[in-house]
Amino acid sequence: MMQAVLFDTSVYITALRTKGAPPFTLSGLAGGAVTWLSSVVLEELYAGANPRSRPEVEKLGRDFQGARRILVPNLADWTQTGRVLSLLSAKYGFERVGQGRLTNDALIALSAGRAGITVITANARDFRRLAEFRPFEWRTVKPSAG
Question: Do the Cβ atoms of 35 and 69 come closer than 8 Å?
């Protein structure tokens, strides 16, 4: 089976902000793996889109929908997210963790883990913490370097 990857929102945001002369390519980061898009990432991109970037976000969604490679969290992912956030809160303290902010990252991580998809992110701290409680494949990239 071919490896599958999913980019976290942090990677897409960097790509959108460096339009014209990006220091990396998303296909290069995927390393030949099949790329998926999380519905949670798409939501975050729409929430942060401005009029200039919105058409790119819409195209991204259409392309992945057409390829039938959009990963949507299921009930078990939502339930596990709540459990993991509770454990994180107990270990690190509610305010330090920022549960609201971590909810989306947890949904991305847990749904990707369920599907056997590796998450690629520029946000090592949050994904490292999540992996303490529910193993999933992930790796970091520093898109601003290179």
Answer: yes
**Fold of the CATH domain 4-140:** Rossmann fold (3.40.50)
Q: Render pLDDT for 42-58 as a digit per residue (tens, 0 to 9).
A: 999 999 998 988 998 99
8 A C-beta contact, residue 110 and residue 74 = no
Span 135-146, pLDDT tens digits: 999 999 875 443
CA distance 75 to 91: 25
β-bridge mates for residue 71, sequence order? 38
Q: Are the beta carbons of 39 and 72 closer than 8 angstroms?
A: yes
In the chain, where the domains are located = 4-140
CA distance readout (Å), 57 to 12, 28, 29, 129, 138 = 9, 20, 19, 28, 23
Distances, alpha carbon 120 to alpha carbons 5, 31, 38, 90, 105, in Å: 7, 11, 12, 27, 12
